[in-house]
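Take a look at my tokenised protein here and describe the backbone shape.
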Amino acid sequence: MKYLPLRGFSLIELLIATTLSLILSIGLFTIYLSNKRNYQFNEALARIQENGRTAVQRLQYDVRMANKITATPDNTTLFIQEADPNSASVTTVEKNKITVDGYTDFKVEDILQINNCAASEIIQVKNIVNHKGSQTITVTVPVLKNLKSYIAGHN
């Protein structure tokens, strides 16, 4: 019986094959990470675009539903306006209290935006006290300093 010599891979051949496999694996992993980053970036961009579209649609709806959008020519009158004929002129602002001429339909927990062409503030109604010909509205956060100074400078 004749024995055939066993022929296998040499140590050098195994090292070369392992090195080539490692280089190939690193390349594939790099491509995977790059594709993953691109996917995450595109997903974030899509979310930003969708949020932008939603915001624009909401603004379009609010503008269409507004009864009247006005500003005084000299920007000295600050209005609180809803999507109905009621609006009230702000007469004084102190810390977290706003006094308005006339009466409003605002309720506790309502979210309001007071603004003019120079400043804007979003506030939440905490309490409303009716006076003769006016209302004092207490809000949850102090009104912005620049809005207070703007009103003070134009009264």
Summary: The helical segments are 11-65, 145-153. The mean pLDDT is 76. The CA atoms of residues 93 and 148 lie 6 Å apart. Residues 9-65 form one domain.
